[in-house]
């Protein structure tokens, strides 16, 4: 792990190794190696989405598609105005989680908090209030899976996990991990993946905001669709736009190797709808993901609409472009 990932600066702060191995920890936006590990199981390498460990590297179920396996594809938003107000876009992820917790599909969920004095990190939630406290996008690595590992170690079952594509890949690797991957992942009821082009180094982002006199809590970040080329920050005084170019300099180096924009390894994937504020694109990928989506719709938690053909074409193009960029990066590094 040190040679392949940490020293090369490729860690994407997914947190999959933290809590799995006692020699790794997560603090303020970074995975920290506290001591050389004498174990020979290499579980950290098996689960790391940036490690070259073919034994557990999951293959794509739908190699011919641009956005991965798809049982159902819709646009959706929460029917609860309070949920929508607290969320990044349509509140679909929050609505799905609230539905699952209140109907017994989950006992708890692993989300990412908003951060305070330190970087955002994973949080185990068990009710509507706690879910809404974690609503919104972070745009930075957060070590979320460390909390999942601790919850499993403590005997938690019926977990929902929300994360970025790299974290969904880490979970897919964990399922195939030797010697106990299937047993560990039996604790996870379902996964929700978030569309992602890249994540930022939290410490560099905070330095950037400080240099630009952004004070007080950040309520939301957003990147409008092209050709805007803006990174927008919402505080209590309103939105403030910045050029996207300097923000791209803060992207985690490991993100350049990621081929997955739409979280293909999740049970359900959720992102924005380009050009339609307040709605999400939702892809149900697995049987349990489809059951969760249809249950939330049936119970009136979500309202849905069709995704226009032109929006689907743009989504597929963006996914192809990310995959192509990552493959070119891997080729240059080989």
Describe it.
With 334 residues, this protein is an alpha+beta fold. The chain folds into 2 domains: 72-200 and 251-333, Aspartate Aminotransferase, domain 2 (3-Layer(aba) Sandwich), CATH 3.40.640; 202-248. 33% of the residues lie in helices and 19% in strands. The chain has helices spanning 2-6, 43-47, 81-86, 92-102, 128-133, 145-153, 165-175, 181-185, 202-211, 244-248, 287-298, 309-333, and strands at residues 24-27, 30-33, 72-78, 108-112, 122-125, 159-163, 188-194, 220-222, 230-235, 238-243, 268-272, 280-284, 302-305. The chain has an 8-stranded mixed β-sheet, sandwiched between helices.
Shape: globular
Rg, rounded, reads 19 Å
Give the amount of beta strand, in percent: 15-25%
CATH architecture designation of the largest domain: 3-Layer(aba) Sandwich
Number of DSSP helical runs: 12
**Structural domain tally:** 2
CATH class term of the largest domain: Alpha Beta
Distance between the termini: 18 Å
Structural class category: alpha+beta
Oligomer: single chain
**Biggest sheet statistics:** 8 strands, mixed
**Helix and strand pattern:** HEEHEHHEEHHEHHEHEEEHEEHEH
Write down the overall mean pLDDT. Answer: 94
Poorly predicted runs are: none
């Amino acid at each position: 792990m040190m040679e392949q990932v940490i020293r090369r600066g490729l860690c994407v702060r997914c947190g999959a190794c933290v809590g799995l191995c006692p020699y790794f920890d997560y603090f303020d936006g970074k995975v920290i190696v506290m001591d050389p590990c004498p174990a020979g199981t290499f579980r950290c390498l098996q689960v790391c989405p940036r490690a070259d460990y073919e034994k557990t590297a999951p293959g794509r179920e739908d190699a011919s598609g641009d956005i991965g396996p798809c049982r159902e594809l819709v646009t959706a938003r929460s029917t609860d105005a309070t949920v929508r107000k607290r969320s990044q876009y349509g509140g679909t992820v929050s609505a799905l989680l609230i539905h699952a917790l209140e109907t017994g599909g989950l006992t708890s969920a692993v989300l990412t908090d908003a951060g305070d004095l330190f970087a955002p990190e994973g949080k185990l939630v068990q009710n509507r209030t706690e879910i809404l406290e974690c609503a919104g996008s972070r745009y930075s690595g957060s070590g979320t899976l460390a909390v999942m590992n601790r919850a499993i170690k403590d005997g938690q079952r019926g977990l929902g996990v929300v994360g970025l594509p790299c974290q969904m890949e880490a979970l897919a690797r964990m399922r195939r991990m030797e010697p106990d991957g299937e047993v560990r992942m039996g604790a996870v009821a379902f996964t929700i993946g978030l569309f992602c082009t890249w994540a930022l180094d939290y410490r560099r982002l905070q330095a950037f905001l400080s240099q630009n006199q952004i004070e007080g809590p950040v309520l939301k970040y957003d990147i409008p669709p092209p050709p805007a080329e803006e990174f927008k920050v919402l505080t209590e005084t309103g939105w403030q736009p910045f050029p996207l170019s300097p923000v791209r300099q803060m992207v985690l180096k490991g993100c350049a190797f990621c081929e997955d924009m739409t979280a293909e390894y999740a049970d359900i994937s959720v992102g924005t709808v380009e050009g339609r504020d307040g709605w999400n694109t939702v892809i149900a990928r697995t049987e349990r993901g489809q059951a969760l989506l249809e249950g939330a719709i049936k119970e009136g938690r979500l309202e849905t609409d069709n995704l226009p053909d032109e929006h689907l074409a743009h989504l597929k193009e963006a996914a192809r472009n990310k995959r192509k960029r990552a493959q070119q990066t891997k080729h240059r590094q080989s």
